[in-house]
Amino acid sequence: MRPTPTEIMTVTASRLLDDDAVVFAGVGIPLLASALARRRQAPNLTIVLEGGIVGTHLVPGRLPISTNEMRAAFGAPMLTDITDIFLFAQRGFFDFGILGAAQVDMYGNINTSYIGTPDAPKVRLPGSGGANDIISLCNEIFIVTAHEPRRFVEQVDFITSPGHLRGANTRAESGLVFGNVSTVVTDLAVLDFDPESRRMRLRAVQHGVPVDQVREATGFELLMHEPLDELPPVDPAELTILRDLNGAAVGAA
Amino acid sequence: MRPTPTEIMTVTASRLLDDDAVVFAGVGIPLLASALARRRQAPNLTIVLEGGIVGTHLVPGRLPISTNEMRAAFGAPMLTDITDIFLFAQRGFFDFGILGAAQVDMYGNINTSYIGTPDAPKVRLPGSGGANDIISLCNEIFIVTAHEPRRFVEQVDFITSPGHLRGANTRAESGLVFGNVSTVVTDLAVLDFDPESRRMRLRAVQHGVPVDQVREATGFELLMHEPLDELPPVDPAELTILRDLNGAAVGAA
Amino acid sequence: MTATTFREARADLERHARPVRDKTCTAAEALRLVEDGHHVGIGGTLYSRTPMALVFELLRQPHRGLTLSRPLTCYEAELLLVTGAADRIVTSWMGIGLNWGLSQVLRHYVERGLAVYEEWSHLGIGLRYKAGAMGVPYLPTLTMLGSDLARMDGTRTVECPYTGQRLLAVPALHPDVALIHVHRADVYGNAQVDGYRHMDVDMARAARRVVVSAEEIVDPDVIRASPFSTMLPHFAVDAVVEAPYGCYPHECYGRYEADTEHFDTYVQAIRDHGLDGVRQYIGEHVLGHPDFAGFLGDVGAARLDRQQRRAKELMYE
Amino acid sequence: MTATTFREARADLERHARPVRDKTCTAAEALRLVEDGHHVGIGGTLYSRTPMALVFELLRQPHRGLTLSRPLTCYEAELLLVTGAADRIVTSWMGIGLNWGLSQVLRHYVERGLAVYEEWSHLGIGLRYKAGAMGVPYLPTLTMLGSDLARMDGTRTVECPYTGQRLLAVPALHPDVALIHVHRADVYGNAQVDGYRHMDVDMARAARRVVVSAEEIVDPDVIRASPFSTMLPHFAVDAVVEAPYGCYPHECYGRYEADTEHFDTYVQAIRDHGLDGVRQYIGEHVLGHPDFAGFLGDVGAARLDRQQRRAKELMYE
């Protein structure tokens, strides 16, 4: 029972979620990671979804594909509307935000809008959805994405969702005075940001992954945290829960 | 069955309300006038109350004393909250607003805050409630009040609810680009405002009331509309309905 | 205007956890959240869904320098003025209700400069709570413009960067503690009401701390069966107090009507004895009992049943 | 950005009566409110409570130059792009859903400059509708700041007059026509939903004209028995269209789940035939029938029953 790369990063992300907290999760890996955390170290974690759902319980094998469908609401003690749930975020109610990224740069900026330029796009991606809002408004933000050079670029083509913008204090100077984009979780590593320059740096490698492999999968010069940790492997119990949750509904996620 | 002064102005106000319109009514005389209109010329008038009530049906003899209590909600097809109902007003959904006044001046400004000055009040009145909002946000506004010199003053001690402010275009210049304070209804007369100066002027006297009596009851120089009308008397049918509505609940209103 | 800025209010919230844990306690325990000098938001409006059980408990405590805010303020604020707990009222209207005339207590304190009545329009105060709840420092509006309310409150105007329209900027209000009464809540604080929400949702979400009193504490599954009725989620609530008839003599939508005869008696006492009438009221109905249940016991089951019956008659079914 | 300013939108509303009168009509009659060049707001989000019966009717009409807006946009916009009715999409996300990959139709039109995708953040578009619904020309927010979305959309920033905080000013959006599907409505247009409200309330209140389709037309007394479920009042509604299964193949909360196999077939047709796959879909499912009931007849009762059963299983009771 070997974990897939997707499973490795889902499990790693789930471990970041403390009990008693509130997490604003995007659909897919972020939601799976949150649901897994509830079955492990964080039984009282409250999962919030952008459809207006507070505290979804989820049905294994019938996980929602979108955060706005009936499945997402199962067992929730409160349902409100989309705008309202983001206003909760703007007020500061949500400890964590977790989201994916088509492209992320060395300052944690995310692009899910254009490959190429807005004037001459090579690929028109689906767009922000709630990602810009989650990264702008939640208290602490985790990004989860596969570690590939085409995803980890020096500068994103387009800042859909602002990380540390151009580093140093530029995020706060833009008016984004709240929200710390703290961590990037991948199938190869966990990364954080240098407290001064806000450039991405390698914090820990996944179990058995050499540092050079992380460097090669990264399209920019990666800073190194001292010391550098190695993460424990995925626990079989974590994997069992994850696959049970996933069921047939989301496939390989 | 002679009508009281209060009944005369309630009936007169009710006649201003067109069928198929939406009226935002304060409690007391404004609500009674609206309820009466629904039983006469405006069966499809929608009465909105500041508690968040859309389309209250009211129970004769059990009229509400406040616009936020259960009685006010009876038979309403929609209930929302206070702030929300005023936001409907701000958007422009409400054709008419009707409200009372402790003190009104020659520009239709209303004072329900202080007799005397804020620094040294002789009487601290209850305050605006929703009056400032109704007069600022509804499309056309009617003021209903007893005609007495102490109420009809040249300049109110304090502008709780803005009429035409200091006349001419000063209301619009303050930012209040919507809402026309069009009519003042009293037990002696109906008054409107000169289109240029926005000073109050006598439009019509109540049945049998001499113009001089209106002048004497007004604490400022009243402009005269040409021609000056005399209103028809209260119809016995109007009075019967009004007293049925009123029941024992609001007493002499 | 407001002591707590939106940034301070957010920083406070970020440090403060309100997890999915049992939060039930007595009113006395819950009210420890209130400190001298606090701004206390009182839920409901006028005599509808006032958290009276919590207010009565507040009256038993020796607080000073409280500011109270409410959409429309009824006699609960008179009681807190007379005990000396509160000296500032932020509201849009204060009295008992249309039928009971001017508030003589308000007149006494404000006309003598013993207390401050900071007056906003009804929507003005609603938008102050809403700005606070939305996590922004102000909201633009067309109301209050041109009036002396705007001048007295020290408000500023802003210009729309797209249209040039002049608008009033209403500043966010973040009560230190909000007191809210609901029809039912689970032990975690997920709270539902069956009637008007008044300004409770915004007030509670803007506040730093929130105490909920509830007609009933219910199983979480009851809440989950109708999640659209949930007004406040557990993470916006600090304490849950069981308080049947917790609004009496005020009304609780669908449960019991306001007992206007109780108001009559109170107002008559003021007519007869001035502020001493209020002090007698507090002595008899509040301090004369160890808790709100004691007060209700005095009122008696027959009278509570009558108010309940009157409420049922007004349900449209 | 927005064609109709808040002052124009208000002036329009002041001139426009939507009384307590029977507003029921067919989808074709209701859709006469839409004119070439209009901004059409489509209620629901992604594949939840999409007013599909109304969208299908819109596809039968020979419109040009429409702008569509929605919180999250699904394949209904693809259909309207391919017929040439729409050439501008204002939304925060566009695709079928996470499992169906990128929208190849969107890519085709936008990458070739044949249509414009004006992208806002999810909250950004929500606050645009909300500003419109509130009757103010903008709302201040902390979201979108610093991003290229804010730059591309030509937004401006404002400074809070009390705190100096820099905020993004999100401009009001007033759709010319909003299309909204609900669970039940009376003939006057008082409309209730049983599930997520998405951004429908704000979208409809911001819009100049509103068409409501409903699973059921009910007696006004049904509405009056649960007035807190009423999402839109009659004075915010122009036309009421009876449309059972009116969201199919999308979901209607508590009534029927989304038919994802229908999406699979649609996406496979695009993989196999490109835009011709979309044209075939429209020919077969939309133009091949005189109305939406014809399409549902093709789908068949067995499949609709299955979707209904799946929805019931997800009700927490």
TrEMBL record, chains A, B:
<dbReference type="Pfam" id="PF01144">
    <property type="entry name" value="CoA_trans"/>
</dbReference>
<keyword id="KW-0808">Transferase</keyword>
<dbReference type="InterPro" id="IPR004165">
    <property type="entry name" value="CoA_trans_fam_I"/>
</dbReference>
<protein>
    <submittedName>
        <fullName>CoA-transferase</fullName>
    </submittedName>
</protein>
<comment type="similarity">
    <text>Belongs to the 3-oxoacid CoA-transferase subunit B family.</text>
</comment>
<dbReference type="InterPro" id="IPR037171">
    <property type="entry name" value="NagB/RpiA_transferase-like"/>
</dbReference>
<dbReference type="GO" id="GO:0008410">
    <property type="term" value="F:CoA-transferase activity"/>
</dbReference>
TrEMBL record, chains C, D:
<dbReference type="Pfam" id="PF01144">
    <property type="entry name" value="CoA_trans"/>
</dbReference>
<dbReference type="InterPro" id="IPR037171">
    <property type="entry name" value="NagB/RpiA_transferase-like"/>
</dbReference>
<dbReference type="InterPro" id="IPR004165">
    <property type="entry name" value="CoA_trans_fam_I"/>
</dbReference>
<protein>
    <submittedName>
        <fullName>CoA transferase subunit A</fullName>
    </submittedName>
</protein>
<dbReference type="GO" id="GO:0008410">
    <property type="term" value="F:CoA-transferase activity"/>
</dbReference>
<keyword id="KW-0808">Transferase</keyword>
<comment type="similarity">
    <text>Belongs to the 3-oxoacid CoA-transferase subunit B family.</text>
</comment>
